[in-house]
Write a structure and sequence with these properties.
The chain has about 260 residues and is α+β, with helices and mostly antiparallel strands. It has one domain: 3-Layer(aba) Sandwich (Glutaredoxin). It has helices spanning about 15-35, 40-45, 65-80, 105-125, 140-155, 160-165, 180-190, 195-200, 205-220, 240-260, and strands spanning about 90, 95-100, 130-135, 225-230, 235. A five-stranded mixed beta sheet has the order 1-3-2-4-5, sandwiched between helices. It is globular and about 55 Å long.
Length: about 260
């Protein structure tokens, strides 16, 4: 899994200090919940993933009030639920929200997209339980940033997820993400106005959208991709699908319990 600190120009000193605090908070959270991975990871990890670089995941922690308060704060920080968001899939009021921070040159992000995301959509998004919101968190420089702007530009024509999946169909790096290649993939993804696509790709609005996602990740202390929050609880790396399904089930159960208690 790629790992890289933000470039010096990416944040102000105050933001860097906030990010350091967020890193500490997230590390504490992951350490506190790592013991909960247990059988979900042991039973779900196949031989091809054993010893891989994926980080520990959060599954079903026995948490105290302070931890729950922290998870709730993370959820408030990252939840957008914007109407018509082209980088989101699922009901706006779904009880469970999965936020993904990813880079298009990240092979482990591609693994999640190919192996786990279709199962989550079929089982939870289509049932109205889960909403997925994607964040462009670029780690590999200009090629990643160009791909991120391209995916946003495709979203302007309602084809974000189609280009997203095409970009992750296999690992693409460097020249494979040149502008002409991105235009070719956009065409294959159903983007009809390619002139507008090129204009949007180079627009200030695209830069702002990608920077918004990037700044959010830095402020949380995201250091590697893919990184996820499920109702504020961190899951790091391309974990087995079973880890994500367990996390979604647990989050849905907690949300139902909270709704019942509020009545």
């Amino acid at each position: 899994m790629p790992s890289s600190p933000p470039p010096p120009s990416a944040a102000s000193p105050a933001r860097k200090l906030a990010a350091i605090g967020a890193v500490i908070a997230l590390v504490v959270a992951v350490v506190a919940i790592a013991v909960a991975v247990g059988k979900a990871v042991e039973g779900g990890r196949d031989a091809g993933r054993t010893g891989g670089p994926e980080a520990a995941a959060s599954v079903q922690p026995q948490e105290d009030a302070a931890q729950q308060k922290m998870f709730d704060r993370l959820a408030r920080q990252t939840t957008r639920r914007e109407h018509g968001d082209p980088l989101a899939v699922g009901r706006q009021d779904a009880p469970v929200l999965l936020v993904e921070y990813a880079d298009y040159q990240c092979s482990f992000c591609g693994r999640f997209t190919r192996e786990t995301q279709p199962e989550l959509i079929k089982k939870y998004v289509d049932a109205g339980t889960l909403r997925i919101e994607f964040r462009n968190f670029t780690l590999y420089g200009a090629d990643s940033e160009r791909a991120a702007r391209a995916s946003w530009a495709a979203g302007r024509q309602g084809r974000f997820w189609q280009l997203h999946d095409e970009l992750y169909a296999k690992t693409r790096k460097g020249d494979a993400l040149a502008e002409d290649e991105l235009v070719r993939m956009a065409r294959a993804s159903g983007v009809t106005d390619l002139g507008r696509f090129r204009t949007d790709l180079h627009s200030a609005a695209a830069d702002r959208a990608v920077k918004r996602d990037q700044d959010e990740g830095y402020e949380l202390g995201v250091q590697s991709t893919p990184s996820f929050l499920i109702n504020g609880r961190p899951v790091s790396g391309a974990q087995p699908t079973e880890v994500f399904t367990q996390a979604v089930e647990d989050a849905a159960a907690r949300a139902a319990k909270n709704r019942a208690a509020a009545k």
